[in-house]
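Q: What does the assembled structure look like for these inputs?
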Amino acid sequence: MKDETKTAIICIAPALVVIGIFTLLPIFYSFYLSLTDWDGFSPIKNFVGFSNYLELISSSDFWKSVGVTFYYAVGITIISVVAGLVLASVINRSGRLMSFHRVIFFIPVVTSFVAAGVVFRSLFSPAGFLSDTFRSIGLSPPNWLADPTLAMPALIIVGVWNRLGFNTVISLAALQSIPRGYYDKAKIDGAGNWSRFRFITVPLMKPIILLLLVMSMVDAFLIFDLAFAMTGGDPLGATRVVGLYLYRNAFHYYKMGLASAIAVIVIAIILTMSLIQMKLSKFGREA
Amino acid sequence: MSIKGISRTTAVVLTIAIIVVAAIGYYYFTLPPPPPKGELKFWNYWDGTNREAINALVEEWNEKNPDIHVTSVTISWGELLPKLMAAAAGGEVPEVAIGDLVWMPKLAKTGMLVSLNDFIKDINYTDFYPEMRKIGSYDNKIYSLPVSANNLQLFYNKDIFEANGLDPNKPPTTWDELLTIAKACTDPDKGIWGMELYTGTGEGLTWQFQVYLWQAGGEFLSADLSRAAFNSPEGKRALQFWVDLIQKDKVSPLAPWGLFGQGKAAMVMDGTWMVGGWRPGGWAPITFSWGTAAMPIPSGGVQATNMGGEQIFIFKTTDEKQRAAWEFVKWLTSKETQIHWDILTGFMPVRDSVARDAVYTTWAQTTEPRLGPFIENQKYAHSRPMVTQYPEISDAFSEEIQKALYGTVSVDAALANAETRVNQILAAAG
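A:
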């Protein structure tokens, strides 16, 4: 073995052990549980094969919750990545106010989803500030959280509000790492605003944009706390994301086997999504 | 091998020895066991002012009983059941704990609770209300005693009543009156509704709806708890009433819970605990003037409400600790302690003798008359069905009923769909 390899192994080992114990082990254990009918407490775990998976595959409630989660995740990803880029470009030109803007937009990122969910719930409520504002200008307010078509957009608004700061700050850092000279030279060659954006900013930002797409998507797919605090899955299951569906089976009904099967399917979905996104963008090759 | 081989002295010594051993044995086995001693952990989820109340009581107990020291441990409502179940499955159990009454079948089924059948010979068990005794029993054995209770009645906003020309001291007594008053109070331009209903999914909807179902004369499950019983003319009448309030008369909004507390709904059905919460100095004080009344009933219907509350139970540990735990449970559920407890917390009596006690009734009438409708109607309180699948049944029921409230399916279809799902869940092993 080369010395380099040895050093590498020694350096990686601590991280590997930690990841192994706290990430890989639970995943494998979860997979094992998904093949049982465990109730969460009893010492008996009967092996039931793939019957939990079969039950899920034939459950329209489960697929609806997966669909709802995709709706949320895609909404969050597209809006927060695009808006983050736009906002970063704007802030990049704001000069002395830049650090101020960075802090302002970052505050929602460090705000707890549960706290935000409760506040936005009352903001969107028919008795809330938003509705009162509508009424005060003589409009009838939309019933955000009780309207099956508006509840998810309301949830996405809050999700984007939370996500935007992170995507903006990362995009801003990437923007600032592009040497100004590129733009100056392009300008001399006669490139307009759009051309400079299209042929300099976008290609150089591509790895970061893709990273943000993957991260936002995965993060949004795991949504639980916001939906739990803001809508509880209502109305008519319009915001019952897969995290809520899992939580209910695990901690209301104590169907740990079924809940673990849901978790395994979610892992598979996220893995597939990430792989597809990387493949589409040839992310692996460039990074 | 003859007896002649034993000397006289040996024989005398042996005889004496046998007598002494027998005497000691007799003495030892017939003597009442020494008073139990021990350290007891007491898990409960009472927080806020209720936590202060239980801490005060536990402190009082510890002063009087230096041999049995109780430590009260507060665990949030959402975490307590998982923790209790995990403890019962092999973890470290607390000696004493309370549980929400709907948890009791699940806890009793673990086999880790001490049967109280022998212990209760010490006390006047029949003094506890029958519906609450039912909750403490599982498989014909008694596993828990009621320790606190609450129920649902009508709250109404007197300011909204007055603003709409209604007598603030005349709350509705029937469903028809409720509708009339709700219509008078609803003002869409101001965002004020007549009657707030629980329209979200989950137990909130289910346990509120059950009150209307029982009032109409219906039942939630069959008497043997094997199938749904709500898909009946009574169930349809109750659900039609809700659907009309929302869809036809538009006096109830489809909205997240909590409008009454914000002054945006004239009436709501809510629990005893809100009397303590909404009053000045409570944990959610509101500024407008409000009153309480018995829940209005349908014509030809009956008084009914839903019962909430806690039960107290003892975990299997050592014999001595179990006896020590019983001493504490006996004291906490005794008439004298219960009077003190109900006055501190505003909870409903669990014993008939407390409800009739002069000290208690005088306190209720003078200090918080708004508790009156709750105390008077506790006797009409039903308990939710004691089946281990209840949480799943409750969620499924609420999801199907919600579709009718939103007008996406008919009343008949919603009840039929709910019936199918509930029966499926009941048929699966609990």
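The mean pLDDT of chain A is 88.
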